[in-house]
Amino acid sequence: MKRARHAPAVTSLPQAPNDEASHRVRRYALTMGIRMVCFLLMFLVQPYDWYTWVFAVAAAVLPYVAVVFANAGSDSTDTAVESPSRQIEAPRAEPLTGDNAVITVQEKRDRDRPRDDER
Question: How many Å separate Cα 72 from the centre of its chain?
Fold first, then answer.
């Protein structure tokens, strides 16, 4: 007996690779920006006290954290699966009978453009 295969819903598909890469780059840049701020605060905030060490540790640890978060990829991003449902009813097509049984398409020819057999 053959099992019925169900196609995945569009909403359950993973994030596009380009979108995921740009999200990871933004997350990495943000973390490295915070690191630069900590590095600057370590030297600029006077007098030196315990918070200087906090800034120094943050500046030293944040590159590792940035790389780990950037490489995490879409594993850390939740994707919500939505069940698609019909929102509106499609109108019923009228059966083709009598006068409307033949569909005629008339095309206008460009006078400036040569026909296929004239080329």
Answer: 16
